[in-house]
Write a structure and sequence with these properties.
42% of the residues lie in helices and 18% in strands. The protein is an alpha/beta fold. The structure holds adenosine-5'-triphosphate. The site of adenosine-5'-triphosphate (ATP) has 18 residues, from α4.
Length: 326
């Protein structure tokens, strides 16, 4: 076992529901194992500005059910520079931190890797992002809650779509990944799903729209991932309006509603498991890794690999989407 006296925890990059549960689990795992937890405000910015304090079990009471992150998150341009990371290290050393648990996405992990390389500060990553775009875990913290939020929103949009001959393009988050779009599209009975991982031209899309019209559908929901390469929801809506004047075309960009809300049970459990796993990995002597869950087991992936590789979209799921939307 590696001797650890003090461990810092921070949330960085985009916030995600379940981050609070991950902070809570990290803090409490530290206390359980006799380590002093230090909570750092606003991600790497707080490290640079020396905005941190020792926590106890009560510091993280009553937060497991809250969305967002009570430590706040930030995008720190200064941490991208060597000078910024040196300042951060000097503060971390003065606070006697032996290691840091970084809850965030791939940008945050890149920062953690550089921090460890340059200053020997041991870091363990916990994947917290709604996009599910991190290799080394089946799911990221916040993804499940975002799926549920999106499905609830689309269900409401369907009510109005079916009351008229309306075609809705609904843009969902996910950056360059289509996980949110594919899964919510299936769950909400979308007529079509456009994701960046699948090459589909505008013409092919128009063709399938024509087919669904022939199949007697008078309203349609098309879920579009924000990273899709068909030109974006507004461009698509203009093209459809021109070709199918019988449809009343509407666009909804769900936006930041997808990041908010109470974390789902699944996200709370995942975050609790991973917060504990991060502290246990540090005690085990690991660093420069991310903890994740694969097939219900905790797995460790080098940060470099977690950043550079991508989870593949399940081709069977794509086929399911195609079959159930005939
Ligand atoms: P999300 O996936 O939700 O956007 P993220 O962790 O990828 O989360 P970023 O904004 O990319 O979010 O990164 C968060 C922070 O990590 C940045 O503000 C910066 O401080 C640090 N960071 C990102 N990339 C680097 C880099 N190349 N070098 C040093 N630090 C970095």
């Amino acid at each position: 076992m590696t001797e650890l006296k003090r461990v810092g925890v921070l949330t960085s990059g985009g916030d995600a529901p379940g981050m609070n549960a991950a902070i809570r689990a990290t803090v409490r795992a530290c206390i359980y194992y006799g380590i002093v937890p230090v909570v750092i405000q606003e991600g790497y910015k707080g490290l640079i500005e020396n905005n941190m304090e020792v926590a106890d079990a009560r510091t993280v009471a009553n937060i497991i059910n809250l969305g967002g992150t009570f430590l706040k998150s930030a995008r720190s341009a200064e941490f991208r520079t060597k000078e910024g990371r040196l300042k951060a290290f000097e503060n971390a050393r003065a606070a006697e931190l032996d290691a840091i648990v970084v809850i965030g996405g791939d940008g945050s992990f890149t920062g953690a890797m550089l921090f460890e390389e340059e200053h020997g500060m041991r870091c363990v990553g916990v994947p917290g992002t709604i996009d599910n775009d991190i290799y080394g875990t089946d799911h990221t913290i916040g993804y499940d809650t975002a799926l549920n939020t999106v499905v609830e929103a689309i269900d409401k949009i369907r009510d109005t779509a079916t009351s008229h001959n309306r075609l809705f393009f609904i843009e969902v988050m996910g950056r360059d990944a289509g996980f949110i779009a594919l899964n919510t599209g299936i769950a909400s009975g979308a007529e079509d799903i456009l994701i960046p991982e699948q090459e589909k031209s505008v013409d092919q899309f128009m063709e399938s729209l024509q087919k669904s019209g022939r199949a007697g559908k008078t309203s349609s929901i098309i879920v579009v991932a924000e990273g899709d390469r068909c030109g974006g929801v507004f461009e698509l809506s203009r093209a459809v309006e021109e070709k199918f004047p019988e449809y009343e075309v509407k666009v909804t960009v769900l936006g930041h509603i997808q990041r908010g809300g109470k974390p789902s049970c699944s996200d709370r459990v995942l975050a609790s498991r991973l917060g504990v796993a991060a502290v246990e990995a540090l005690r085990n002597g690991d660093s420069g890794i991310m903890v994740g869950i694969r097939d219900q087991q905790v797995v460790k992936t080098p940060l470099e690999r977690a950043i550079s590789k991508h989870n593949q979209i399940d081709s069977h799921l794509m086929k399911v989407a195609q079959i159930v939307s005939v």
